[in-house]
Amino acid sequence: MKLFDSELRIMEILWREGESTAKRMADELKDTTGWNVNTTYTMIKRMIGKGIIERREPGFVCVPLVKKASVQAAETDDLIDRVF
């Protein structure tokens, strides 16, 4: 599965934490990337639609549905294909 850099920023938080509220991720991404709350929420909604993360209630808790190792393997394969 190919993830965009913006999606990877969100996934790094989820892989590190296991799960996180959308608000907490928005606060962290505001500090680290300068994203506003709407940008983070828009990205989360797109990722939910793509089946990358799941939203749980109450509290808009996000949970990763793909493993970091799977994404790393796909990225590595893609890089090798592009180089060779």
What labels would you give this structure?
4 helices; 3-stranded antiparallel sheet; mainly alpha; globular; 12% strand; single chain; 84 residues
Describe the structure.
By secondary structure, this protein is mainly α. Helix content is 64%, strand content 12%. The protein has a three-stranded antiparallel β-sheet with strand order 1-3-2. Strand 2 (53-56) and strand 3 (61-64) form a beta hairpin. The protein is globular and about 45 Å long. The two termini are 20 Å apart. The model has no long low-confidence stretch (mean pLDDT 93).
Layout: helices, strands, pairs:
Blueprint: H1 5-17, E1 20-21, H2 22-33, H3 37-49, E2 53-56, E3 61-64, H4 68-83
Antiparallel strand pairs: 1-3, 2-3
Helix pairs in contact: 2-3
